[in-house]
Amino acid sequence: MSNTAHVQNNRIMYIDLLRILSIVAVIVLHITASLLTRTNDFTTTSWWVSNVFNSICRFAVPVFFMISGAMILRIEVKSYKGFYKKRILPLIIPLLTWSLIYGYYKEYYILKSQMSAYEFILDFGRKLVTDGNYVHLWFLYAIIAIYMTVPLIGKLVRSCSEKDLRYFLILWFIVSILYRLVSDIFLRLTDQHLYVPSMNIPFFMGNLGYFVLGYYLFNVELRPIIKHTLFNLGILSFFLTPILTYVVSSYGGVLDEMFYGNYSITSFLMAVGVFLFFKEKDTMISRKTNYKVKKVIGSVSTASFSIYLIHLLVDTMVSRDVAINATFLETTLSLLFNIVAIFSISYIVVKVFNLNRWVTHILFGGRG
Fold it and tell me: Model's pTM, two decimal places?
């Protein structure tokens, strides 16, 4: 296996760019979700603009898992205690902190609850265990769970040949992506669930596949024909996702997220296409980017995890709702304003908090 990533001061340019692009895409997903779920009229201009914005950003979460896998699976874990202290504790602390912040904000500022402090603590504890405090914190539960497997999965992956990894990924694709696609189509056509017992293979299900896929694509140089095929299918998926979402939503009469999910065939192909594109362009981008710009890219990339944690709080304070009957220009400008405002404010707030080491640890697990 080979890796041609351009490393500058212990930073990998295309990984940094993927982080930045993905966190912006996540912000877009959350901004556009409001209008998409407020109406079942799929012919309005505002719905279509939101649908297109949302659709083309569906690569974000899979790419985040792929980046994590690419970076952490190459590390040899010599001490379980050391690994938990360095990698998992910095995730658990912000999970607790932000669950409390969002839980309090939602209960007393959004819902205007009269719940007592004792009742809030009991409710918070229950929601903390069941991932019920706020919508985007699920990612921390998922990444913590995967990180707990790294001391074993990492050894397994690094001992595998390229052929072994390819076998795992093909089987994961069949079980988690292809089977899900067939099941979703079957459900919508027959109103019945399709269950094939032989497809229920836990090791080949879930986000672990994206984790290993990131490691594989980071380290393996694909044959040109395979690379170009995957890249072109990724481009095609960017165009197909909003159209297919319109078709299935119109068929059911309500927003159908069949092609929005992390395991949809289009989300998978978009994520692979985006990852391969930035990897391919890494050397060229690094060569043409000056030192100051690289520093800014590194700074924003480092803050991406923290931005993810704080951005929905900023969203509730600064974003502007798009009217259902808004024009193309009104919808687009409103969405762009929200994206720029939420991203910029989140980044600035994160950097201000980073001025204090203890605040950084409590809020962001020591990340900046």
Answer: 0.94
Positive or negative: CA dihedral 219, 220, 221, 227 = negative
Q: Give per-residue pLDDT as tens, 60-106.
A: 999 999 999 999 999 999 999 999 999 999 999 999 999 999 999 99
Q: Which residue shows structure tokens 């923290």?
A: 306
Task: Give whole-number Cα distances, 4 to 13, 241, 284, in Å.
Answer: 11, 31, 12
Instruction: Give the list of residues 6+ apart from residue 93 with CB closer than 8 angstroms, or none.
Output: 361, 362, 365
End-to-end CA distance of the chain: 32
Query: Residues 214, 68: contact at Cβ < 8 Å?
Result: yes
Establish how many alpha carbons lie within 13 A of residue 117's alpha carbon, considering only the half-sphere containing its beta carbon.
0
What does the pLDDT read at residue 59? 98
Nearest to 107 by CA among 115, 95, 117: 115
Continuous H helices in 56-161: 60-72, 80-83, 89-105, 117-130, 138-147, 150-159
Q: Are 212 and 170 in contact (CB under 8 A)?
A: no
Buried b (16+ CB within 10 A) or exposed e, 123-147: bbeebbeebebbebbebbebbeebb
What string of DSSP letters covers 158-223?
A: HHS-HHHHHHHHHHHIIIIIIHHHHHHHHHHHHSS----GGG--GGGSSTHHHHHHHHHHHH----
Say how far apart CA 100 and CA 110 lie, in whole Å: 14
Could you tell me how many residues make up the chain? 368
In this predicted model, what pLDDT tens digit does every residue of 143-195 receive, in sequence order?
999 999 999 999 999 999 999 999 999 999 999 999 999 999 999 999 999 99
- Contact present, 77 and 28 (Cβ < 8 Å): no
3-state helix, strand, coil in the chain (%, to 5): 75, 0, 25
The candidate with the shortest Cα–Cα distance to 211, out of 140, 149, 164, is 149
Packing angle, helices 13-38 and 328-353, rounded to 10:
130
